[in-house]
Write a structure and sequence with these properties.
By secondary structure, the chain is of the alpha/beta class. It contains 25 helices and 15 strands. The strands form 4 sheets. It has a 7-stranded mixed β-sheet with strand order 3-9-8-2-7-5-6, with helices on both faces. Helix 1 runs antiparallel to helix 2. The radius of gyration is 29 Å and the shape is elongated. The C terminus is likely disordered.
Amino acid sequence: MPPMNSKWITAWSRFAQQVCCDAQLWLLGVLLLQLFRIVLIVAFRDYLSNDIRWTELALALWTGFRFDAQTAAWFAALSFLASLGCLFGDASSFANRLRAISRSLLIVAVVIVGGVDLGYFSEYRDQFNHFLFGAVYDDFRAVLVTISKQYPVIKSLLLGAGVFAVLWSLSCRMTARSWLRSDQVAWLAVRPWRRLMLLICCLLLCGVTLRGSVGRRPIQRKDAATSRDAVLNKMVLNPFSALRYAVTEKMKLNSGAGLEIFLADRDVRRAVQSFASTSDPVADVDAALRRVAQGPKGNPPRHVFFILMESYDGWATLERYQSLGLSERLMDLGRRGLFTRKFLSASSGTMTSFAAILTGLAEAGIVTNYQPLARRPFPSSINPIVQRLGLRTRMFLGGYFSWQRSDAFCLEQGFQELYAAPHMTQSHKSNEWGPDDRDLFDFVLRATDPEKPSFNVIMTSTYHPPFSVDVYGRGFPHKTVPPDLAGVFQADADYLRVLGHLWYADQMLGEFVAAAERKYPDALFVITGDHTSRQFLNKHPTLFEEMAVPFVMYGPSVLRDVPVPPDLVGSHHDIMPTVIELLAPRGFEYHAVGHDLLDPNRRPIGFGRHHIISRDFIASRLPEKECQSLNGSYFTEAPAELSKLQAEYQMLLGVAWWRICRGTELPDSPMTSVSRTAELK
């Protein structure tokens, strides 16, 4: 055999041997990720539907395998490139070193990222998503301390070390021997057509695994929706895929291409026009959001207390859970004032909801309080509007100003007075997130003057991890589950103590309103939750129980003669228009994206960060997501108006994104690919 031929046989033999080792690394990655998915399913099986089919589980695992194949291929990619180099020289040692490094990184990453993902799933019932970025903008020290108090960190680290050791041992055994014997390698390398077929097969398999698909398009996140069960669908992705999608979406939102997430046609002008109160063409975004007050419906309040309760759930106000008594004081205020459960928060996080309320714009996932254009009030921002009506604005933060640049943001948005935890209590009486609600409300009473009209925003923090209040010492009555809820309550023994913090927050709210009403008989109290707590009595909450927050307005002298529509439905976006219409004289101009809840002609619709609520149903803003009646049953056919509402909500978010990121001026025409390229440059 000619020397040249012998040289090529040797090169192709090296290549075949190295590719075989790459395949072993890829298979190791797939097996580890599938094993993690099975652990995830078993660990959280109680959250899956009781009627889930085996075929759905099988399809979830198969689709998960496709995501795993893609992720594992990236771990094996570098060593595969080195294996290709064996065709041109002896790169075997280099490929082996790269493969050993990749294998180590794979196992370390699966143990660490997988462990964090398990804890993340226990909190959010989802793998890495938009909540992940709260840790980036939040008080990182407080986050770490909270985690250390809420979870067994030392035990988790020891368990992780043990898992790593086991996986390392198994991986060494798995990759210790090649799948191909020397005679099989020689057989592949000796014939040119076999060498060509080997190369083609390797490249094709590499392409298929990197795409996770043999079809026309690569696998995408929407392919994870394989079953009727929303929780199972969230287990289809592996932690690395979930993390990649969360990061890329966040980057896209913050880039010039973020508009496309909400407006696929990038037609900002059409979206803005849809919010105008007139059919005449509008000149800019602010013109479309202009409103004119119809005049007070009763006696305008001299003082407004807008109370944003930490993690206040709507489900706690439902009749079926009343034996726990978690929201008795709020319910009493609602019975004597105005109350609805059919209400959504602007966002699923505290600062993002607060920023949406404060700026009067929808929360579009872009962390408004860090945006350059948010460093001065928008026309829809509440402080300048309220100050024009003669009220002094104050912010009482039941937390620390180190939290998400809240001091700077509040000043930029026009608050005239700011107070936080250091004003309210000594540091040793607070936890990582803020003071006891009792200290917060006592300080508010001391810091306000009955003679000077005021608008006071109060943010509480008691019902927040690490749940450090001695609620039993404060009188929480339940150390065991009430008999009527014994068949519903499915949680560990400590869970009642956690719920006791909601009870305690409710008690402090009631005491404050009673004391403030005596001091300010002409006050209006506006109360809602900043978002839901993700704490539920059972493992299968309905979509309504999962997403709704309560809304209460109380003020006997203010609301005495005010007619209330029979069935209120709304969201955070509608609060300030409602308050302004109670305060402002007829003809007063202001800006808002929401509408007066007390307007009898208003549509009974509420738009939250991810959901839409009406009198009869609650649904995701995205067409492919779920829709339920308010009692939790699924529709055989989606409500007729749902698709229109979903499109309207997408436009609401698109308008907010544009106003916060680009300003009030509109493009002359829909953003084309050419203009988009210019914008990105």
